[in-house]
Amino acid sequence: MSDDTSIHVGSCRCSQVQLKVRGKPLMTMACHCAGCQKMTASAFSLSALYPLDAVEVHGLQPVIGGMHGDLHHNFCPHCLSWIFTRGKMFGPMINVRVTMLDNAAELAPFIETCADEKLPWVTTPAVHSYNKFPPMEAFPQLLQEYASAGV
């Protein structure tokens, strides 16, 4: 796994939006909600939570897609790849879609959310599973556990 000073890069499908992330994510997740299933055209979305200042976006300016409310799902304006999500609930953090990064294989989900919407044949290696989202008060412990797990 990456250390705190590592730099990883990635891009959208057409490479017109590029990402650079510094350090390890604060936590990795799989979301099984029906919305993520529809936006990814897959069984779940994978994401890695980073401090906002650890992520650089270059190239085309991402556009808001998906839901247009408290969460801002950012997509490439050309190929429409879902790149990252920002929102008040994340505070000064950004939720990067793991598969946009070249080191995606290193970023297995630590938690899974919305497991009550999971397709019945799906399994992940997540350590923690939540039927909805974890309560906000659980996040400090989850972040600490993820950091100390050395993943």
Commentary on this structure:
With 151 residues, the protein is mainly β. It has a single domain (7-130), classed as glutathione-dependent formaldehyde- activating enzyme (gfa), CATH 3.90.1590.10. The chain is 12% helix and 34% strand. The protein contains two helices and eleven strands. The longest helix is centred in the last third of the chain and has 11 residues, at 139-149. The termini are close together.
Q: What is the fold's blueprint, element by element?
A:
Elements: E1 7-11, E2 17-22, E3 27-31, H1 34-40, E4 45-51, E5 55-59, E6 63-65, E7 71-75, E8 82-87, E9 93-97, E10 111-113, E11 128-129, H2 139-149
Percent of residues in β-strands: 25-35%
Tell me the domain tally.
1
- Main beta-sheet annotation: 8 strands, mixed
CATH-level-2 architecture: Alpha-Beta Complex
> CATH top level?
Alpha Beta
Distance between the termini: 6 Å
In short:
This protein is mainly beta and 151 residues long.
Keywords:
34% strand, glutathione-dependent formaldehyde- activating enzyme (gfa), 151 residues, 8-stranded mixed sheet, 11 strands, globular
